[in-house]
Amino acid sequence: MQPDGQHRRGCLLLYKYVACKAMRRCTTRPEVKDWVQGIVTVYQPKAPVLEVGSYFVNGTIRDLFPEKGYIGIDLQRGPGVDVVTDICKSESHEEYATVVCCETLEHIIEPWTAIERMYAALKPGGVLILTTHFAFKMHSYPSDYWRFTPSGLRYLLDRVGFAEVRIAAEGDVPGVGPVGVFAVARKP
């Protein structure tokens, strides 16, 4: 069966977003960095900042935040990683004014647990900035487990008690949905 023109266009559009041959040499997708920059401008998040999934794979948003008080965590040592740890096993409690998790949630086996831990790590009034994927190719670092719809991500944030949840859909693969799903939320 030959794909129709709309399917072919959708595949080409999807390819446009993921066509980096060597992800370690890519930069953060401009759509992600631009959105995070806009959130930083509006919300003016404060330090200390916790970045979940900070290993420098395909760029960074670290330069958008104050360096003093910025802690990047990941499962493996490497560029951008200050502490090697698993967010799902984190015992942080109301230590951070800002938690950032960009293009990482899809790699976490239990994203609901990760969101619970991010919520616990935030001080009251703290801000969560999160970006993830919906219509995006499978990719490791170290594994790829999930895709999120805007409604699914909202549910995960609402269920732990986040307030002022704002969800944005980025890009569009015709007949499929958004490329990325972005969220900002505040801990009451």
Blueprint (SSEs and pairs):
Blueprint: H1 5-18, H2 30-43, E1 49-52, E2 70-74, E3 83-84, E4 96-102, H3 111-121, E5 122-133, H4 150-160, E6 163-170, E7 180-186
Parallel strand pairs: 1-2, 1-4, 2-3, 4-5
Antiparallel strand pairs: 5-7, 6-7
Can you walk me through this structure?
The protein has a single domain, classed as Vaccinia Virus protein VP39 (Rossmann fold, 3-Layer(aba) Sandwich). Mean pLDDT is 83; it is low at 1-27. Helix 3 links the parallel strand 4 and strand 5 (122-133). The protein is of the alpha/beta class and 188 residues long. The chain has helices spanning 5-18, 30-43, 111-121, 150-160, and strands at residues 49-52, 70-74, 83-84, 96-102, 122-133, 163-170, 180-186. It is globular, with a radius of gyration of 16 Å. Strands 3-2-1-4-5-7-6 form a seven-stranded mixed β-sheet, with helices on both faces.
Name its key features:
188 residues; disordered N terminus; 7 strands; alpha/beta; 27% helix; Rossmann fold; seven-stranded mixed beta sheet; 24% strand
Strand order of the largest sheet: 3-2-1-4-5-7-6
Within CATH, the superfamily carries the name Vaccinia Virus protein VP39
How far is the N terminus from the C terminus?
A: 53 Å
**Tally of individual helices:** 4
Could you tell me the radius of gyration in angstroms? 16 Å
The residue fraction in helices comes out at 25-40%
The run of helices and strands is HHEEEEHEHEE
